[in-house]
Design goal:
alpha/beta, about 240 residues, 6-stranded parallel β-sheet, 7 helices, globular
Length: about 240
């Protein structure tokens, strides 16, 4: 049985958890259902992840919801994903606000509809004063795009392009780098997610498909992180 995250000392809890939510389509296929039913089930798993991280005292939870590569999926699936995203955002906003969660969106959003972009902006504005946890939704996001955009920004501002400067220019500059990255669904790759930010992140790969990744699974991942010896390139004697 995994240690319940609230029992962990604060220093053992990751400040920032990032998640690649993989397995919705396979979950639906295993049940001979359309892929969109897997995405709907994935929304329920998002609620469970938010609850577990909120209870544990995680400061930032970043969810990889829609990559730039996902635009290449069938047009019908993309349209249904966008509709599901809009409905979930409308339905969950009040609960997030009530629980003092700040909502942020990162990525390139120019291909989203004007109404969805406005809905996202309103959600960010409505929760801007919340302080318990940041919930970051990566949509239209790609790690390579993020680094390239950061470099372009620094160039526009006439700043030298250094590692320290890029830290201040990537999409997640408002948060510490992820301490823990979780990927569900059995695959063991990063898939162009937060390439810059994951340099020293602990990587946790789960065979559980995302719709089945509940609070217990998230608690187990956080407990696993608490037992990691993070050296950041140093030998133990130098820590």
């Amino acid at each position: 049985m995994s240690l319940n995250p609230p029992e962990l000392p604060p220093q053992a809890v990751p400040k920032h958890v990032a998640v690649i939510m993989d397995g919705n389509g396979r979950w639906a296929q295993q049940r001979q259902r359309p892929r969109v039913s897997g995405h709907r089930a994935g929304v329920r798993a998002v609620r469970a992840a938010v609850r577990a991280c909120h209870k544990a005292g995680v400061g930032t939870l970043t969810l990889f919801a829609f990559s730039q590569e996902n635009w290449q999926r069938p047009a019908l699936e993309v349209r249904l994903l966008m509709e599901l995203f809009a409905r979930a955002l409308k339905r969950e906003l009040a609960s997030l606000h009530k629980n003092n969660v700040r909502l942020r969106f990162i990525g390139a959003h120019d291909l989203f509809s004007a109404s969805l972009r406005e809905q996202m902006a309103q959600a960010e504005a409505a929760t801007a004063g919340n302080t318990h946890m940041d919930l970051v939704i990566a949509v239209g996001y790609g790690g390579q795009w993020d680094v390239a955009e950061a470099a372009r920004r620094l160039q526009r501002e006439g700043r030298e392009i250094t590692a320290e400067a890029i830290d201040t220019a990537v999409c997640t500059a408002f948060a510490p780098a992820p301490d823990l990255m979780i990927r569900t669904g059995g695959e063991k790759r990063i898939s162009n997610f937060m390439l810059w930010q994951l340099a020293y992140t602990e990587l946790y790969f789960s065979d559980t498909l995302w719709p089945d990744f509940g609070e217990d699974e998230m608690s187990a991942a956080i407990a696993w992180f608490a037992n990691r010896n993070r050296r950041f390139g140093r030998v133990p004697e130098a820590q």
